[in-house]
Give the backbone structure.
Amino acid sequence: MPELPEVETVRRGLEHHVVGRTVAAATVLHPRAVRRHLAGSADFEAVMAGRLIGAARRRGKYMWLSVGEDALLAHLGMSGQFLIGHPDRPIGPHVRARFTFTDGGSDLRFTDQRTFGHIALVPGGAELPAPIAHIAPDPLEPAFDEAALTARLRLRRTGIKRALLDQSLISGVGNIYADESLWRARLHWARPTETLTRPAVATLLDAVRDVLTEALKAGGTSFDALYINVNGESGYFDRSLAVYGREDQPCPRCGAPVRRDPFMNRSSYSCPRCQPRPRRGRW
Ligand SMILES: [Zn+2]
């Protein structure tokens, strides 16, 4: 599942390849891809034609292309990809929407094998689309307010990993990067947020930023081979994961076997020695 670094990698790819170009035609090949565009496929195709793409922006795992005052908002879901390539190449079975450009160059294809992703035209959304205005800034955005987050964490009374995954508190941190950041900060995932000191929160946020930045440099993480960046290359950050997906393998810091706990229908990976269980955890 694409997380913030993967989405940012795709955003940068779109910035490089489509910003400044004008859409000649938009074609919806599967209506599910535009299910959040309530006026339907034909309307989507009509409103996208002739649009100049002004900027590629992101908040958390959402990204959007500004088109005039409006936004072409996209979420990659589990398996969404944007692919750029020669406009005459064959159209694969998972292409859900296609955009050609007036310059006749490369086209843009939204592909999505599992169809959890979506794209929509949001009127007036160029700066911040309304459907995602409730999502908190992510730690790589200039708008991110560390002092405000620290205060809200102490009021929240939940486990720290649940807080990291709460998009209304901090966006863009998914399961993988939460586990990696908590390991770096030596915090157990069930640690109650109200017991975290200000320096502990600062250390954790530094770890979150470091993990996301390193993943970004590596082009994101790829686990199921479904995620591919805008040019079709897989990320490779997974080679440098310390705990995520490494049950029973040695902790890179102390050598203790990595522990896996069930967590919200998924898993949490941590080191039993570096991240001791809290006496009163919030599970
Ligand atoms: Zn350890």
Remarks:
- The first strand starts at residue 23 and ends at 28.
- The CA atoms of residues 164 and 173 lie 6 Å apart.
- Helices lie at 4-17, 41-48, 146-156, 160-165, 175-184, 198-217.
